[in-house]
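Extended Data, panel c. Modelled sequence:
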Amino acid sequence: MITRCALIAALSSVCGLAIAQDIPGIEVCTKERDLNRRTSCLQSNVEFLQQQMARQASDAQQKLSAAATEISNLKGAVETLRARLEQLQAAPKPPAAK
């Protein structure tokens, strides 16, 4: 990541002018005077927010699925330990040495 940033900085200083890139995100739409441009700006914001919400929902679902799998595995381990404990408790105890 640091190497990539250094490379970009070096290239932009060599080129003199960096080309502007349109990065999607939340924009301030209140400065637009034209109604069509303001509407377009608001729609862009809505689309961006919907994409972010979908991405967050997908990430949350993946985390929930992973947690459910881990819980299932842990329940299985607890049952195995419980069965082993019952076996140890049921085993005849050796006579006490005097």
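The chain has two helices and no strands. This feature is highlighted in the accompanying rendering.
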